[in-house]
Design a protein that fits this description.
By secondary structure, this protein is α/β, with parallel strands linked by helices. It is built from 10 helices and 15 strands.
């Protein structure tokens, strides 16, 4: 009797672990014949790839696919939705995603492909998902060197890719390091040996005729000045430019935002989650459900669109149903708290 009972218990434990998300991570040498093809197929299907670039390995996903981008945050265990760099295959792809002026063109011409990320106004109607850009009107672009460029060209879409390490750990500069940090959470790792540079890209933002240095890197101030003739300046203190997601009331919509709402007031605009009805929801002016099935990945992918939809001057009150504080829920709730914070 005892052993008969023990067997199903063991089986259900294993099933539970499989459901918890362990996936098989395939490591493929970058020089193998089908490396580009297999990586493109994986990315096209919404998969995540540890991708070599000349700076560090990236945790890459299709920047136009919200659920793939949500999985990037989930795999990294990032507690907030910082905007991610969009990697492009060439300047034509970049020009479809952002508004380039002469200075931006000069930077791209001089430093791409290479370790420089340029933050520019986003072009209208781009297919880039708002979770990639953190809902910002700007976009960070970089054309990496090497096989990553070939893969993006073949995919025909930009790749979102933060460094391929769990949040809070050092950036991965080898396939083995990516495997140790993210194995079981991503589909593939492409092994091209140690990263050539081993340091993340320099990030600059073109703003009011100046170059704001958001992150120092191998492309130095002098080279940036020489390429453009522009002054290279540090971000204004307290501007929150460097990490826009950290501004307390960033992305706040016009109306007030109430979180963890268990009673909807008549006329509220409701952001719902899951299938349990919130009391009073019948009286809501409009309801957007982040994920009727209660899937946090889907909810993350829909979050910025939901906030944008209710960001209208005539909307005074937005109510948000409780969202579980687990996995991606932590980053979702972080962003909602910023939206709800008192306005500065
Ligand atoms: O070398 C690199 O840049 C590597 C490789 C993989 O390309 N990528 C990388 O990405 O370091 P990540 O996500 O770890 O760093 C992106 C930085 C973040 O600090 C983010 O705040 C900033 O870029 N960023 C992204 N979009 C931005 C925007 N629109 N405005 C300001 N900062 C932005
Ligand atoms: Mg990083």
């Amino acid at each position: 009797m005892t052993s008969e009972r023990a067997a199903p218990d063991v089986a259900s434990v294993c099933l539970g672990e499989a459901r918890a998300g362990a996936i098989e991570t395939t490591c493929l040498p970058a020089e193998s014949d089908d490396a580009v093809e297999r990586t493109v197929a994986c990315l096209r299907g919404g998969g995540l790839v540890g991708l070599p670039t000349e700076t560090v390995y990236g945790l890459a996903g299709d920047a136009t696919n919200g659920e793939a981008v949500a999985r990037i945050f989930e795999a990294k265990g990032r507690p907030r939705f910082n905007p991610l760099i969009c990697h492009v295959s060439d300047r034509d792809m970049a020009a479809r995603l952002a508004v380039f002026d002469d200075m931006a063109r000069a930077l791209a011409e001089r430093f791409w492909p290479g370790p420089l990320t340029i933050v520019l106004p986003q072009a209208g109607g781009t297919p880039v998902h708002p979770l990639t850009t953190g809902g910002l009107a700007t976009i960070a672009l970089r054309q990496p060197k090497g096989i990553a460029g070939d893969i993006i060209a073949r995919l025909g879409r930009p790749l979102a890719a933060p460094s391929a390490n769990p949040s809070g750990r050092v950036s991965a500069t080898s396939a083995g390091q990516v495997m140790r940090g993210l194995g079981g959470r991503i589909e593939m790792i492409l092994d091209a040996g140690p990263s050539e540079l081993g340091l993340e890209s320099t990030i600059v933002k073109l703003e009011r005729g100046r170059l704001v240095l958001l992150r120092a890197g191998l492309v130095g101030r002098e080279a940036l000045h020489e390429a453009t003739g522009l002054a290279v300046v540090a971000p204004d203190a307290g501007s929150g430019i460097e990490a826009p997601g950290q501004l307390r009331s960033h992305y706040a919509p016009h109306g007030s935002v109430r979180l963890d709402v268990t009673q909807v007031e008549p006329g509220d605009y409701l952001i719902a989650f899951g299938d349990a009805p919130v009391p009073g929801a019948d009286g809501a002016a409009e309801i957007v459900n982040l994920s009727p099935s209660g899937d946090l990945r889907e909810a993350a992918a829909n979050l910025f669109a939901a906030l944008a939809r209710f960001d209208r001057p005539e909307i005074a009150r937005i109510a948000v149903a409780p969202i579980p504080q687990e996995g991606l829920g932590e980053a979702i709730n972080d962003r909602l708290r910023r939206a709800a914070a008192p306005r500065d």
